[in-house]
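Entry 14. Structure prediction run on the chain below.
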Amino acid sequence: MFSRCTLLFFQVGHTLTRQNTDFSLRCPLGWSANMALADREWIGRELFAAKGRLMTSLKNWWHPPTPKNEASRTPTPEPHFLRRLFLWMPRRMLHFDFTCPNCPDKSPRSKSVYNPVRLVLDMRDFYYLAVEYLDCNRCNGTFMSWDKRIMDQLPEGVRVQFPVVLTHKYV
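Output returned:
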């Protein structure tokens, strides 16, 4: 009945009550445009500590949980088709100080994860690409961490970790 949500039990007086926790609500609203609910559910549970707040320990690749083999339930195909997520946040994860492309003397700060998430096709399947959203207080410029002007500031060893070749319209 609650296949997409985790049940939390709270003791109220002498009875236990159930609270339905929808982890997909922790993801940015813009992610629902091209991310399946089942993917938002596992990503919300793994990547976000609370609504809009990322976990403290971050990594680039996030993999969906392995489907459970429960003999008591009717199997569903959904858990077998969950997609990976690549998180690109060089400022926040690597503590790299960028120079603002508009005003070179100021370092843009990490605002959060960009609201839309991209769907990327690689050699074997699709995965999601989530990137850091940077902004500059001085010039009010906003930049994605995949911006060529930002990427060119990274050392070659870090830049090659970004697995996507961006085109004008699609990734």
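Residues 37-47 form the longest helix (11 residues).
Filed with the rest of this week's runs.
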